[in-house]
Amino acid sequence: MASTIAFALLAGLGGGCGSSGGGGTSSMSAASTSASSLAPIHGKYSPSIDPANFVATVDNRFWPLKPGTGFHYQGLRGKTPQTDDELVTRQTKRILGVRCTVVRDTVSERGRPIERTFDWYAQDKQGNVWYMGEDSFELQHGRFVKASDSWKAGVNGAKPGIIMPGNPQPGDGYRQEYYPPGQALDQAHVLGYSATVKVPYGTFERSLVTREFSPLEPQTEKKYYVAGVGEIEERVVKGHHEQFQLVSVTH
Predict the structure, then answer these.
(1) Residue spans per domain, the chain
(2) What is this structure's pTM?
(3) 215, 168, 186, 184: which is closest to 36 by C-alpha?
(4) Which CATH architecture has domain 11-23+35-40+52-250?
(5) Which residues, 6+ apart, have CB-to-CB distance to 118 below 8 Å?
(6) Cα gap 164→35, rounded to integer Å
(7) Tens digit of pLDDT for each residue in 212-242?
């Protein structure tokens, strides 16, 4: 999950939203650089990755990843209370020649970690944030074992997808990940902007709303993002009960 998250923007995150992320660049061609074109849902999937077209910093306004930042969520999976803590590490990993930011994601129940995932993200010059893979581990019989849906772009047919467009527009549809052997085929659609969303971290106006699903799973999620912060809420709207909300951001 990537999940991450009247209000004052944190200085560290707010400072990143004025650069190449978020709205993209003035020379952007909507036809050639939209998420729908770069990571299409339909037809043969073969995204083009040029390392020279990537930047060192992930500062998309809806997905800012400043090293040292922690996003802390609380919620329910089924009837079970859980916490989800995401830390933007200072580590990087090179995938397909691209330097990726490593995010450590820990899901806990009653204070005990039950899932640990290392997600890899990279941003292109148009502001699109690419999802390059993940190492996911699940607690089984008292020890963590690697999950079958772990994947890395370029290995065993896995291909990257876009986790957040540089210039998200209502109606955009795009692949977020592509790894058929591990049944990792998540897709997303931009629904538009909501009026007001209230979570423990604050009350936000005009949050970006996306719908995410996999053709292999009978559930649909809605996620809400705020410029300069990131994900503030996600909830399953079709399928089992699951909801997480942003509680705090640390540095």
Answers:
(1) 11-23+35-40+52-250
(2) 0.87
(3) 168
(4) Beta Barrel (2.40)
(5) 102, 103, 104, 105, 134, 135, 136
(6) 8
(7) 999 988 899 999 999 999 999 999 999 889 9
